[in-house]
Specification:
Layout lengths: L2 H20 L2 H11 L4 H5 L4 H7 L7 H18 L6 H19 L26 H16 L3 H39 L6 E6 L6 E7 L3 E8 L9 E4 L2 H5 L5 H9 L4 E6 L2 E13 L6 E11 L2 E6 L4 H15 L3
Antiparallel strand pairs: 1-2, 2-3, 3-4, 5-6, 6-7, 7-8
Helix pairs in contact: 1-2, 1-6, 1-7, 1-8, 2-6, 4-10, 5-6, 7-8
Length: 331
């Protein structure tokens, strides 16, 4: 999830663990601890951009690291707050602030390597990385916690915020299952044979959902709104295996294949090859000239081809949000 949401969640969890002891200092410690796993972004600034993608939500989001880091940070906090919190309680607070950060990230499309050093990313794909309906209840509750000194009232407000946010997260799982059923039913009705399907929400909502469907020679992309009244349709994008063969043994290509978990197509524009990550959808859905949300251009450099992310403009984002808003109202 976005950093702002993770800070809010970190504060709420710190309040659960040590609100009675630390009072409003939970806002400081919760904000710091809720941010720590995402510091891999800072590390990525010193790496090749493709390598930065691969390490994101890797070791920094693993239980292995948290088991090491929690007692260390817990010891520092217990020393700073010597008269207020014990080492055990401080360590517990650190661990749960870090772990809940990762558990929340697991519900997004990118997922996390919570069991690092295993390569597998756990991604439930039920919520977008920014969703105000999840975040706002937490923020409202924390505002009341900040203004309240009574421990029982603080606990009551904080638990209410966590309850509503968590209920929304659980609701997202059920809505995804319903959307998945609708896509699978449409594929069956249209006689489409496929090997794999992933379903995920579009930005900022749980009403409009995207599907990526893998078939033998192409990927089918589609969307479904809970307000739809017409049958679901699918748009095919060729896997372009011939173009892909031109990137055989290319280092950046192999890394991007791993990062995309196999959901990609290679395209060509004016003799330039592009790697398109299918998991995050399209900025436009023109089959003749599609523009993917995450696309990488291969540029010649000293006899090799290096992948460089295609920049996105604010205009692209506005156009995408406008398209989503119109589409979620139904077809």
């Amino acid at each position: 999830m976005d950093s702002f949401t993770q800070i809010a969640l970190g504060i709420a969890i710190a309040e659960v663990c040590a609100g009675k002891k630390l009072k409003n200092k939970t806002f400081l410690y919760g904000a710091i601890l809720g941010t720590i796993p995402d510091l891999d972004v800072v590390v990525g600034l010193f790496l090749n951009p493709i390598d930065a993608i691969l390490i994101h939500r890797g070791i920094s989001h693993s239980i292995f690291l948290f088991l090491i880091l929690s007692p260390i940070l817990g010891w520092f906090i217990s020393k700073i707050e010597r008269a207020k919190i014990s080492f055990i309680l401080a360590t517990t607070m650190v661990f749960w602030c870090l772990l809940t950060h990762v558990l929340l990230d697991m519900f997004t499309s990118w997922g996390t390597q919570i069991l690092w050093p295993l390569d597998h990313r756990f991604a439930f794909k039920t919520i977008f990385v920014v969703d105000p309906v999840y975040t706002i209840p937490l923020l409202i509750a924390l505002l009341w916690v900040w203004r309240t000194k009574d421990p029982l009232l603080r606990k009551k407000y904080n638990y209410k915020g966590l309850f509503f946010s968590t209920a929304y997260l659980i609701l997202s799982c059920f809505i995804k299952l319903y959307a998945l059923h609708q896509f699978e039913k449409a594929l069956l009705n249209q006689g489409i044979h496929y090997s794999e399907i992933i379903v995920k929400p579009t930005p900022l909502n749980l009403i409009l959902w995207n599907a990526n469907v893998a078939t033998t020679n192409s990927y089918l992309l589609s969307n479904y709104s809970l307000f739809d009244t017409q049958p679901i349709s699918f748009v095919a994008y060729n896997k372009n295996k011939i173009l892909e063969s031109k990137l055989t043994r290319n280092t950046d290509f192999e890394k991007l294949k791993k990062a995309s978990e196999g959901w990609y197509i290679i395209s060509r524009k004016k003799e330039t090859l592009y790697f398109n990550d299918l998991r995050f959808g399209l900025l436009n859905d023109n089959p003749a000239n599609p523009q993917f949300a995450f696309s990488y251009q291969f540029i010649a450099n000293k006899g090799d081809l290096n992948a460089v992310e295609v920049p996105k403009s604010k205009r692209d984002g506005k156009r995408l949000l406008h398209k989503i808003f119109n589409r979620l109202k139904g077809n």
